[in-house]
Each structure stands twice: as structure tokens, then as C-alpha cells.
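Explain this one:

_____
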Amino acid sequence: MSLKEQINTQIKEAMKAKENAKRDALRLLSSAFKQIEVDERRELSDEDVIKIIQKQIKQRNDSITQYQTAGRDDLIEKELSEIAFYEPYLPKQLGDEELSSAIKAIISQVGAESMKDIGKVMGIASKELAGKVDGKRINECAKALLS
């Protein structure tokens, strides 16, 4: 069963169990999937679905930052609950030590020596670690190791 089918099944189960928050959050994901399928006229692969989920989580995190500055705790809770519904569909995220060792390997692979070479490191790291780590964490780790 594909990731998209799993999410659709979870929507149905949430409807039967009257879990409105979960149902609504997963419906937002489903509508994002359908939007891309209609716009690009193609079926989504599991990799595409993971990218969409990551994009949705990033949007929620950006919203949380804005709500914190505005003092809207009620909206922060809603965004956090949506993130909690999305995260189980992502692959296991790398820990800090695993990320650091992966970045070190990439740095030695490309022969990076200073911050001037961060573009090379980020290019390869973004491809190799896609889905496993957020791009912001990759960038922070690479900067720390190169400086």
C-alpha cells in the first residue's frame, strides 16, 4: 500500500472514530496531493508524497513562529497537533550524531575545506539526506563543521 493510500485509509478511520482534528489535518494533505496531481497530470510516488508532507510541516513551523510573536497560543496548539499527525508518515529522522557523521563524510568526499565550499556540501547533502533531515539542520551542521 502506497503512502498516499495509507493516508486516505487513515482519513476514513478518523471519520468513523469521529476524530475531527486528525480527519481535517489529513484532508489538508490529501487536497495538497490532489492539487499537484491535477496541475501536473501525474500520479504521485511515495517520494513526492514525503516532499509534500515535509513542505506542509515547514509551513506549520513557519506559522508557529508567526503566532508566537503575535501571542496566539490557541493557533500554535492547532499547528502543533497537525504536525503530530503528519510526522508518522515521514521516514525516521536522523539524530544529531548521525547527521554530523554523514556531513563529515560528504565534506571529505568533496574535499571541502572552508565556508567557501558550503555550496558543494549542501548540494550533495540535500540529495543524499532528503526526507531524513530538514534542510535547515543540514545547513547548520555543515556551517558548524566548516567554520
Notes: The chain has a mean pLDDT of 93. The helical segments are 3-16, 20-40, 46-70, 73-86, 96-110, 118-128, 135-146. The chain is about 75% helix and 0% strand.
